[in-house]
Structures are given as structure tokens and as C-alpha cells.
Design goal:
This protein has two domains: 5-114, Up-down Bundle (Methane Monooxygenase Hydroxylase, Chain G, domain 1), CATH 1.20.58; 115-221, no CATH class. The chain starts with a helix and ends with a strand. The protein has a four-stranded antiparallel β-sheet with strand order 1-2-3-4, with helices on one face. The chain is an alpha+beta fold. 59% of the residues lie in helices and 7% in strands. The longest helix has 62 residues, at 77-138. It is built from four helices and four strands.
Length: 222
Amino acid sequence: MRPDPRVLHDRHAQLTHDLTRVAEELDHLARIALTHPAPDVHVNLQRRHADLHTQLQDITRETQRVTHLQSQIQESPMNQHAQGFTLIELLVVIAIIGVLAAILLPTFSDAQKRPYNVAAQQCGRAIVAAQIPYRAGTGSYTSDPAQLGPDVKEACQDAGVQVGVHATSPTAATAAYLMSGANDVSFAFTVFHPRGTGFYRYWLTSPSPVAGGDRLNTLFPY
């Protein structure tokens, strides 16, 4: 049975609409990834991205099938022009989706790690805040974070943050949950999360091996 040109034309128009919808949703996902760094959000975004990729493959196959049927029908020059324009749209949308995917996937990875860097910084701030009353009560700062109370435990140990001695770069050897030697005037430490991208340092008296980097204000990449 010969395909109805009008049915094929309508089907082609619907496929073009579907392609536009997929492209717009991918753009929306990219915007969400940039503004919502929470890991659970990005897990859902990755799943939706995979669903959209499957939809794109289905739309592409169906477009090829419809185009093949249209090519078997003798069409007027106007219809041929409309068909060619739709194919160009298909190629352009596929190219745009490829670019968005290349941007979106690295963004997912970076955004997933960002909360762990924030957790490390919050751990460091909790230590600094807890050292003040500790020194007031004992006359000296401590090099043992376990002595600083439940707030530090929650912000550091419970959050998976490593606390180590002040070092140029933390390694497994520095992740002993022990700060650099403390006394009545100074203490120092390094904080980082194993799933983050870097580490923070703090040094109360700050001889500062790296200028401005010993106040939990600089994320040093691994």
C-alpha cells in the first residue's frame, strides 16, 4: 500500500517537534547542573539525560524511516524543499545535543565533588571555633580533634572529612585525624574530603608557606 504523503508529512512535523523538545530539556538540565551542586540532584539529572539520549536515538531512527518512505513518493518541489529543511533541522539538533552533552557531563562530575570541598571547609571552621573555648578552659590548644566535642565530630568525622597535620599536600599519612603540634599560642591542620578535589589549611600564627592560604580561604587542588 502506497504511503499517504500527508500522513508522512504530519509524522515528520511531529518528529521535528519532538527533537526540539529534547534539545530544550537538555538545555534545561545543563542549567540545573550549574545551579544545584547536590550529588542526589545530579544522580537524577544523569538518569534523565540517559532517558533523553534513548529518545533521541528512537526519534532519529523514525525520522530516517519516514524520510525513506517520502523519498519513494513523487512529491512537488514545495514538499521536497520542506523535507530537506526538516533533515537539516535534524542534523543541527543532533549537533547541539552533542555539544550540550559534552558540557553537561563534566559539569555533573565537578558539581558532585563540590559539596565535599564545602564539607571540608566547614569541618575546619568547626575546629577553629571549638579551639577558642578549649584553650580558655585548659590554657592551651589541642592537637586532637576528638577533644573538641560533638560539633567537631559531626562536622568532621561523621561527614567523612579527613583532618591531618599541616602539610603542603595531604596524603594517606596525613589523614590520621591528628593536627600539627599545638601549644598555648598556635595550632595548625589540613582538612580534606577523599571525594573532593582539594584541601584547606589553617595555621593560627601563619608563617604561611603559601601566602594567604592558611585561613581556610584557599582550596588547594590535589
